[in-house]
Amino acid sequence: MEDVNGIAEAINTFGFPIVLCVGLGYFIYYVWWFIGEKIDPELETMHMALIRVIDQTRMLDQDMIRLQQKVNVVLEYKERQKVIKEAKQKEALATLQSEVQTDER
Predict the structure, then answer these.
(1) Which of 14, 39, 55, 91 is a Cys-bridge partner for 18, taking CB atoms 3.0 to 4.6 Å apart?
(2) Are the beta carbons of 10 and 19 closer than 8 angstroms?
(3) pLDDT in tens, 41-53
(4) Residue 19 contacts by C-beta under 8 Å, 6 or more apart in sequence?
(5) What phi and psi, each to the nearest 5 degrees, are found at residue 15?
């Protein structure tokens, strides 16, 4: 109740616009202080965490590129082995056919 009487007395003494400007000035100061003391340090820590996440994402991206290259090499190697195997089978078949033709004569 004392605060209300003090505010009413200040309004009676200085006028409503002056008391309102002082109250608004205090509100602006409090918001400025709160941002400087509470929010800025947290933003800095979040900024550092974001940088760490970005770095980790880049490293994962590079790892994915290297892994994809390795998979491509393995697939190419398998394809070459398949072609070599088919060529050997064709060569064996051709040899077998020539032996059969030689035996028939």
Answers:
(1) 14
(2) yes
(3) 999 999 999 999 9
(4) 7, 10, 11
(5) 100, 155
